[in-house]
Design goal:
Layout (H helix, E strand, L loop, with lengths): L3 H18 L1 H10 L7 E3 L5 E5 L9 E5 L14 E3 L2 H11 L2 H16 L1 E3 L5 E3 L2
Antiparallel strand pairs: 1-2, 2-3, 3-4, 5-6
Length: 128
């Protein structure tokens, strides 16, 4: 016969060990517990936020939004890059670190610099 008390104690012990093994999960759950869907929860990393999405079918999703801060310490974009898994971050980093992307952005920088010239008074004028 099964000893139900032993079984229940084993499950409880497993749950306790699981929680102790990953305290970050507990911190995340606590951080988003009382926030509205799509509300940003700041983290200790500037430009990284936790975001809870609306529940669907009883499943909740928590994502990390990457949105660097500007000089005024507010997010640079209205919406940043939303990530749910490490694999997504790895794939984005592959693209962002690609030398061709860096060259493309430098070319865009050059185009933007050429379209703005300085007047003798030091005021920038946009060339159209």
């Amino acid at each position: 016969m099964l000893d139900h008390n032993f079984y229940i104690k084993g499950i409880t012990m497993f749950m306790l060990v699981t929680k102790m093994e990953n305290p970050m999960e507990e911190k995340i759950e606590e951080a988003v517990e009382n926030v509205e869907p799509w509300q940003r929860v700041p983290t200790s990393v500037d430009g990284a936020f936790l975001v809870k999405t609306p529940e669907k079918g009883g499943n909740k999703t928590i994502m990390v939004e990457i949105n660097p801060l500007n000089d005024r310490r507010t997010p640079m974009k209205r919406r940043g890059l939303f990530l749910r898994q490490t694999m997504e971050l790895e794939k984005f980093l592959e693209v962002l670190e690609n030398e061709s992307i860096i060259e493309l952005l430098k070319a865009l920088d050059d185009l933007q610099v050429r379209s703005v010239t300085k007047t003798p008074e030091g005021i920038k004028t946009l060339e159209i």
